[in-house]
Backbone:
């Protein structure tokens, strides 16, 4: 089953890995930060080796974003940035795992202080006839 | 490569691989050697014609390459014992039918079901990594990782073909059946992408299950699995409309069902049912047969379906079985009896396929004439499903 894992974060300054630039993460004892980072790396390596990780991208600063809204019968483009205080979409992973249980396990391991991790099932083009 | 050569390759590669692995061990090295033998065949056969015994030709070519590779690796300590195994006699392996052994090796308990499926299609089905990736709608690199990781794991577990003892056999055959069922289901439920490639996972699953059933003629559950696949595949032409939307069983044009597949499935099942212990695949096949033999949805033998689901629930209980049983009970005892069966599931927080529960309830509420509640349940099911065609269907029913 395919899921996307969306990382909502507001690193200051904008940078990746986002946890390095999030105050709540920086406040952790160095030892714990190293352990969390190492665990995350290990999981990513494992998932890319066993074929569960399909792709992942880190996103650029939201101020570089362009928004297209419909207005006055035509599309209107506006530049970022958004408000400074809200969390932004900072990156995403597309995974293909055996089921919801494994997806929850992965998303849990992706989460960290000061950030919100969203686990969202992807729609698929097949189905059952019942 | 022309298609004649490819047909021969698809048919022979598991036998060639099996013969090599049985003789030398080292799944990974053997597969490399088999690949090289194929390249050589692709070069020679179109020019010189197909050899009289293609399997023997491929086994000889692959063995030569494997022996060369192992010899050149002899210095490396991790390959030493394999090279030593070559020392006493270098007689080439025999070309007895080894595809069953390769299938059982691919279903090694150290592998996850996803890896078992990928490796089975690669090594037993002879599909390319690209074909398997396209069928599962993942990038080829992802599928390549799954296959190579699975091979590495087999090597690490020291898995050898000869390892399956008589005592292991039932468990290994059981996971082989499960793997083939997964392959079939993937092909049957995933409509996207499949038409774009030349390979149908359902056809592949049926082909491999047929082989397994031929090799194990007294195994009634394998016969049951084959019957289930044939009886389900028979309905395939009627299950989507021109726009690709799913057509529920009740609304399918039964004239489109394949009578040849139905007849074969029913015959298999009639032989299997009285001759051994009745397992879940035989029961599911029996349910499919009752549906397939009904002239119309209304004429379906619902008491028999309800009874078969009762037996299945006793043997392999699951929420999905309860839901299907409830639908049959609604036809025999009315929707209220069926809704009472589903109520306990509503409070189950661990239920993963929650949309199916709401879809079943919606259908029953509709039958009971409780239109407002039905509509609400259809919407809830639509909100929860991740299948695009199912969502379209459920929203249509919600009205």
Residues:
């Amino acid at each position: 089953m395919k899921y996307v894992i969306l990382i909502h974060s507001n690193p200051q300054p904008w940078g990746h890995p986002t946890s390095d630039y999030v105050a709540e993460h920086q406040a952790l004892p160095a030892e714990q930060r190293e352990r969390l980072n190492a665990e995350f790396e290990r999981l990513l390596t494992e998932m890319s080796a066993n074929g569960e990780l399909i792709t992942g991208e880190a996103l650029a600063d939201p101020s570089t974003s362009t928004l297209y809204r419909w207005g006055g019968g035509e599309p209107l483009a506006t530049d970022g940035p958004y408000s400074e205080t809200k969390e932004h979409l900072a990156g995403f992973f597309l995974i293909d795992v055996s089921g919801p249980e494994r997806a929850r396990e992965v998303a849990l391991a992706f989460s960290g202080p000061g950030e919100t991790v969203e686990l969202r099932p992807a729609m698929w083009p097949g189905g059952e006839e019942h | 490569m022309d298609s004649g050569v490819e047909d021969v390759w698809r048919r022979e590669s598991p036998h060639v691989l099996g013969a090599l692995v049985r003789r030398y061990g080292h799944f990974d090295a053997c597969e490399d050697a088999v690949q090289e033998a194929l390249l050589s065949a692709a070069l020679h056969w179109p020019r010189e014609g197909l050899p009289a015994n293609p399997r023997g030709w491929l086994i000889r070519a692959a063995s030569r390459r494997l022996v060369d590779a192992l010899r050149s690796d002899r210095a490396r300590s991790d390959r030493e014992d394999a090279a030593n195994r070559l020392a006493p006699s270098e007689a080439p392996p025999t070309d007895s039918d080894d595809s069953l052994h390769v299938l059982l090796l691919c279903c090694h308990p150290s592998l996850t079901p996803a890896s078992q499926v990928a490796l089975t299609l690669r090594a037993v089905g002879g599909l390319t990594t690209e074909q398997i990736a396209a069928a599962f709608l993942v990038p080829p690199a992802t599928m390549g990782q799954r296959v190579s990781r699975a091979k590495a794991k087999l090597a690490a577990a020291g898995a050898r073909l000869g390892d399956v003892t008589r005592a292991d056999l039932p468990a290994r055959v059981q996971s082989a059946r499960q793997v083939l069922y997964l392959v079939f289901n993937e092909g049957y439920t995933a409509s996207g992408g499949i038409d774009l490639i030349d390979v149908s996972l359902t056809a592949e699953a049926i082909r491999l299950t047929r082989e397994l059933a031929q090799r194990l003629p007294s195994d009634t559950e394998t016969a049951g699995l084959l019957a289930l696949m044939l009886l389900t595949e028979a309905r395939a032409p009627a299950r989507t409309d021109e726009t690709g939307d799913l057509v529920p069983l009740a609304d399918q044009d039964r004239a489109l069902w394949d009578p040849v597949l139905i007849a074969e499935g029913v015959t298999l099942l009639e032989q299997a049912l009285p001759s051994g212990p009745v397992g879940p695949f035989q029961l599911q096949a029996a349910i499919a047969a009752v549906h397939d033999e009904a002239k119309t949805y209304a004429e379906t033998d619902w008491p028999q379906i309800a009874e078969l689901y009762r037996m299945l629930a006793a043997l392999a209980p699951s929420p999905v079985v309860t839901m299907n049983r409830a639908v049959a009970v609604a036809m025999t005892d009315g929707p209220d009896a069926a809704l009472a069966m589903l109520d306990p599931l509503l409070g189950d927080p661990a239920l993963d396929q929650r949309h199916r529960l709401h879809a079943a309830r919606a259908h029953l509420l509709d039958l009971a004439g409780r239109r407002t509640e039905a509509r609400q349940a259809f919407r809830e099911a639509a909100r929860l499903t991740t299948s695009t065609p199912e969502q379209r269907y459920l929203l249509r029913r919600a009205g």
